[in-house]
Amino acid sequence: MDRSELFRDFIAFTASVLETKHDFTKDIRIEGITPVQYGILEYLFAHRDEPVTISEMSDCQHMSLPNTSRELRKLGEKGLCEKFSDSEDKRKQYIRLSPEGQARMAEAFRKVEARFLERIRGISDEELAELARAIRLLDGKVF
Amino acid sequence: MDRSELFRDFIAFTASVLETKHDFTKDIRIEGITPVQYGILEYLFAHRDEPVTISEMSDCQHMSLPNTSRELRKLGEKGLCEKFSDSEDKRKQYIRLSPEGQARMAEAFRKVEARFLERIRGISDEELAELARAIRLLDGKVF
DNA sequence: CTATCTCGTTATCAAATGACAACTAACGAG
DNA sequence: CTCGTTAGTTGTCATTTGATAACGAGATAG
Lengths: 143, 143
What we know:
The structure is a homodimer of 143-residue chains.
Chain A: H1 3-25, H2 35-46, E1 52-53, H3 54-60, H4 65-77, E2 81-85, E3 93-97, H5 99-119, H6 125-141
Helix pairs in contact in A: 3-4
The structure holds a DNA duplex (30 and 30 nucleotides).
């Protein structure tokens, strides 16, 4: 097993994944949302119900706490997300999508899902099951 | 086969891939290179010998031709890449890494490869072969 | 109680990025 | 040759993003 060759495949693969993600989401534009803000909304949308603190957001989105705070404030002003504080530790602020934000993201993701379904349209159920296994395998072992 | 469930797995998977890529490359800093410029260098490095025109770069990196031109000029001034024109169509400008740029990227990628190898260290050759198949399958069918 | 630490906010600044207009040069069709 | 098109450049501007300092309020250890 040539592990360096696998590395090259890995690099090419991540580039493909990135490209595909971009294709699927490039023209998803919510009002006056910047790319970074969209990233935050997507993160919140993906984490459905689990409460997320601002520090965690900051880590995951790879931005400083002050900048995260600023962008969240902007999103709050736009009515797309809301804060609520921990009942135990009052320093902690949790953040979630507002109903409005939830609705907007759900709408956006219907478009993305439609594109995804279109892309896999011609693939048989057996092959899809195989793809699902491949995704789980990779997700467990490498990513 | 629930295709919507596959969609959700797909979304989670792309997020994981993005995160992993970020982990592997976050502290790769070449001199005074901006993130966008790094993206260009990475693209050129990945495309080894195939000549790439500025318009193609512009498409793939999802930036306008004027901005691509500007960033390439900056990279040229830093001595990291170089242009040469098509002998047939003199409007076309091809772009490639300079020897210096090639060396810098090779060095950076040795670090990335080391991290990748570390991550797959405990995985047996049989499992790796399976992973390689999974990557090829996904790359062919979905991405 | 009082340091110290954590979580978050606010303000400010510089740099990076994106968008666009105006331009040159080369090609290609008629 | 002329006109329209393609490839790329230059310049300018507003916005976005990243970095950092200074601060406040709540937790926590000694």
